[in-house]
Design brief:
The structure is a homodimer. By secondary structure, chain A is α/β, with parallel strands linked by helices. Chain A has eight helices and six strands; from the N terminus they run H-H-H-E-E-H-E-H-E-H-E-H-E-H. At the A-B interface, helix 1, helix 2, helix 3, strand 2 and helix 5 of A face helix 1, helix 2, helix 3, strand 2 and helix 5 of B.
């Protein structure tokens, strides 16, 4: 194989969700395309990398130069609710479902011995200031329902617990919509029983 | 979502084997990476698009400026065998298995009423010249075992059938290695019976 093409395939294969076979197909499609798709993609990527930065307030990626992101600038979002998530893709998921209308705060990771993520790696330095400045009265943890997620949630709560008049909440655990008991794991079933609601 | 990021995700989602979810993860990984991976990928892509061209002889993509590809320049490949394939990924597959040591010829597609591929879209103009100039004595069709593949094969044969002293062959059809009869389709079984070998 031509070494230049081989290098390009290797670079694509290192992207998440791609293996060498998918990367080959992508590179082949890009190199054989005659509509300028490859140049457009490369230039859009260079432009994005040069201009997209995390919002200094919440961590959401934005291209507003040195300023706050769309969420932090939107006064209609200042409803006193702050949703703490792991990363930007969680924000996108929540926005698509349109269940939350407050502000976000991206941790940028979860505490994990395996991945070596330490408390200092979490984006929580300005969290107490945000609670004061933005009149936050409820903090909603929307972290993964895993050991790392819960550990991180407890740690973040311990850091900001001194803040008065703030309610903490987390997403409910239980049987998913359309979920068949047959296919549920024991952990979810146990959480669903513990959290059963009176009728 | 930030419009610049959204546009970039849409561009990635249009690549083969990628959907919008995988594209989101890829864009997020690239934008959050701090090792310059996104710039390197974009620049490698721009460089490849600017320098990679199909070999004028066989159609294999190469970055040798205006010249022949690695296969056509390699004298050890001039063994009189020419393997006709649909596209470059088939060349890569055959090269990985190391079963063929001759030269290739890429058609660039298969005749197809559905896809609208006409005889004039096939890269066969110089095929007769190649047979003469490169002393080809065997042409091996390694096209997909489908209606389109077989139709294309018959068409290409009719075009070059006037060439004397050239044997034509195609890949064998039958039960794949490790294949269980239980899981074989009727078409393959029928081909395997028709092509049964005496012992």
């Amino acid at each position: 194989m031509n070494p230049k093409i081989e290098r390009l395939i290797k670079q694509f294969a290192r992207l998440p969700r791609l293996g060498s076979r998918a990367a080959s197909r992508i590179v082949l499609a890009l190199l054989q395309d005659k509509t300028g798709r490859a140049e457009n993609l490369a230039n859009a990527l260079l432009d994005a990398v040069a201009t997209i930065r995390p919002c200094p307030n919440c961590g959401v990626l934005t291209d507003v130069d040195g300023g706050l992101c769309e969420f932090c600038r939107d006064p209609s979002r200042a409803n006193g609710q702050l949703c703490i998530v792991r990363d930007l893709s969680d924000v996108w998921t929540l926005e698509k479902s349109a269940v939350f209308h407050g502000r976000y705060h991206i941790l940028g990771g979860l505490l994990s011995g395996v991945a070596g993520t330490m408390p200092t790696d979490l984006n929580i330095e300005n969290l107490s200031d945000r609670i004061k400045n933005e009149n936050i009265h409820e903090i909603i943890f929307a972290l993964p329902n895993t050991v790392e997620g819960k550990t991180t949630q407890h740690y973040v709560m311990s850091v900001i617990s001194a803040t008065p008049d703030v309610r903490f909440s987390e997403l409910a655990s239980g049987v998913p919509l359309g979920g068949d008991l047959d296919y549920l794991d024991d952990g979810t079933l146990s959480l669903a029983f513990d959290g059963r609601r009176g009728l």
